[in-house]
Amino acid sequence: MTLTKIKPRFCLLFLAALAAAPASGQSLPVSTATLVQTVHTSLWSPPSPDPSCVTFRPETGDFWTTDNEVDEMTIFAGVTLWRHDALGNVSETFNLTGFTGEPSGIAFDPAGGRAWISDDNTRQIHRIDLGPDDEFLTGDDVIADIDGLVAAGCDDPEDVTYNPFDGNLYVPSVDSDELCTISPGPNGVFDDAAPMGDDVVTVVSLAPTILKPKGIVYDPLENTLIVADRGTTSTNRDLYELSLDGVVLRKIDGTVPGGYKPSGVTLAASTVNPMLRALYVTDNAVDNGVDPLENDGKIHQFVVAPLNGNAAPVVDAGPAQSITWPADTVSLAGFVSDDGHPYPPSALVSTWVPQSGPGTVSFGDPNALDTTATFSMPGSYVLRLEGDDFALTASDTVAISVNQANPPACGIGPELALFMPGLWALRRRTRRRPSP
User: Fold this and answer.
1) What are the sequence ranges of the domains in the chain?
2) Less packed terminus of the chain by CB within 10 Å, N or C?
3) 169 burial level (CB within 10 Å; 0-12, 13-18, 19+)
4) Which fold has domain 3-303?
């Protein structure tokens, strides 16, 4: 998809993300992430002791977590990929050892039909074309490889994410501290890197800010990348937000009691508030190379403010309406949405208030989006719907016309004259005496 086809809001976010890049010599902005939940993958049956990545598949609404170390351990029970929900309830498992012994990352095309799995052993990316059933790893799938990455400078593809707007794959190379961008080339198909194929690989160094880029996810709302940095010590293990060309925009500092070792990251709705987006981060804690009997895998859920901060609520009071007196009540259908920030409290309050009009207005429930408004007399009214997220407010108005009914035709004789809105007075006719 070309940039000209992207919605205006997306373009604005894209420009804002570029503007957020710190100028040379400025310190890197730091945002604090709040830990709201931890899922213990070590308790799954069978367990995942060293989860290497997690991805959210929006078209199916579930999470997919890989473990690229479990097959080296005595607890291995033939599972290297788990499908589950945000609370960690597993619905399906897979054994990927038939084509990869090191499934370090996984990504799906949100339009459906394709998946990619990075392999840090063979240093390839496996492309899985889902068959007509659009199901993962069924008999109609076709598996191929993207080769030539090492020769193109992408030494150790640790994870993978897909950007449907530019059609590129983004891959962190953990051994060389680099970000690899893979474009499908003139044929429009991911096959092999040049000169084996026509895929174009671009490599950008992330050092010295990011020392061990392990996980990655594309953020379609901000048009940025979020990278999980495993770091070299427990003091430099954090998340970072990057522009697509590898400029580090901010550090996301999340704290886990006892520390954590981030390996993969994805974005999805929070379990706290469905309007709140959260970062889900896999933690492989103690490596099996250090302790062959360890089983301590986790997935942490963090909430952090967006790159450009808390946004005001989006408010729509609905279309203008008109009624004719003595009808005095209209039905209102408003809309208020918010990004869930600030967190806490991650709360949103909606309120209807009268802004102008000749009479009084009473609401069935002034805090309900769908409610009624009753007017005391005819005239032109403006009602205001307000949205408040406890930090910022926004509002929208709707015009309501309560029209005066036409008086009855009286013909010859007494007539009615409008005395004031809603009140008609009898007009007296003066009879002339006939001329003598």
Assistant:
1) 3-303, 314-408
2) C
3) buried
4) Neuraminidase (2.120.10)
pLDDT in tens, the chain (436 residues): 222 223 333 333 333 444 445 555 578 999 999 999 999 999 999 999 999 999 999 999 999 999 999 999 999 999 999 999 999 999 999 999 999 999 999 999 998 799 999 998 999 999 999 999 989 999 999 999 999 999 999 999 999 999 999 999 999 999 899 999 999 999 999 999 988 999 999 999 999 999 999 999 999 999 999 999 998 888 889 999 999 999 999 999 999 999 999 999 999 999 999 999 999 999 999 988 899 999 999 999 999 999 999 999 999 999 999 999 999 999 999 999 999 999 999 999 999 999 999 999 999 999 999 999 999 999 999 999 999 999 999 999 999 999 998 765 554 445 555 545 555 555 555 555 556 5
pTM exceeds 0.70, yes or no:
yes
Query: Rounded distance, CA 412 to CA 407, Å?
Result: 15
Classify domain 314-408 at the CATH class level. Answer: mainly beta
